[in-house]
Amino acid sequence: MLKVGVLGAGHLGKIHLKLLNQSEKFQLIGFFDANEENAAKIEEEFGYKKFSNLDDLIQEAEVVDVVTPTLSHFEVAKKVISAGKHLFIEKPITNTFEEAQELINLAEKHHVKGQVGHVERFNPAFQAVVSRIENPMFIEAHRLAEFNPRGTDVPVVLDLMIHDIDAILSVVKSEVKSISASGVSVISDTPDIANARIEFENGCVANLTASRISLKNMRKSRFFQRDAYISVDFLEKKCEVVKMKDVPENPDDYAMILQNAEGVKKQIYFDNPSVAPNNAILQELETFADAIVNDKEPVVTLEQGARALKVANQVIAGF
């Protein structure tokens, strides 16, 4: 078991503490939270060991899980890596791409592994279809949330849209060619609703919308590729795969057949994979443990986290 310490015991930090405490791959040594009153309350309520000094926790741990506000990520992550400890860090990896690049270089220098908490990669609905997403040419993503003051320290792009940016970058095997975007501040000082159009060198286009002032929650993405349409509902953890194939010589009486203007006929059929339930946060943490123990590349590397951040910042710059 790997000795792990958690930095930050806010809403998400408490979830990480609970899951790491249950995990058979980690030994939770405790946590550090800068808010002394909050830290004392959590120690009393849950029994997790509270460290009064950040450096003491880093020294005792083999792995450090950073779940602090984004603006503090760079400084604490630098401390963790410089101490030779493996780093799990929540998304976005840092506030700027330059900071992320410095962490990547530092991790290489100190021979430590790092993983970024892009949890939607571990969403069971996405996992069920990701192997079927092959060369998508048009992608549409909607991530809408009801207003919550937590997270408004960063624009909606870094709070919500970056989930979809990372997922899209993981399946589109091409460099970004151009980005156009618009964003509007409604309640916060930073944009609360944003739309981005990302064009890739291979011709793929992704249209993303994110909002944190919606009346209902929605997290859906749709991938269109040659002879297939794939839909992922990240919120409901459901997926749908609609495929087309050449019409057989003797089609079934109930077969759904389309004919285009050129007379080419295609049969539509559903190829929906089963979705295996999981705890996405626990899985992302435990796959990181596996990467460390087996000396493998983490599922979401620091480099991938940095690339998602770079694209997100390009979206923000386009407002």
Automatic annotation (TrEMBL):
Pfam families: GFO_IDH_MocA (PF01408), GFO_IDH_MocA_C3 (PF22725). It comes from the Bacteria. Residues 2-118 form the Gfo/Idh/MocA-like oxidoreductase N-terminal domain. Gene3D superfamilies: Dihydrodipicolinate Reductase, domain 2, NAD(P)-binding Rossmann-like Domain. Residues 156-216 form the GFO/IDH/MocA-like oxidoreductase domain. Coiled coil: none annotated. This is Gfo/Idh/MocA family oxidoreductase. The lineage of its organism: Bacteria, Pseudomonadati, Bacteroidota, Flavobacteriia, Flavobacteriales.
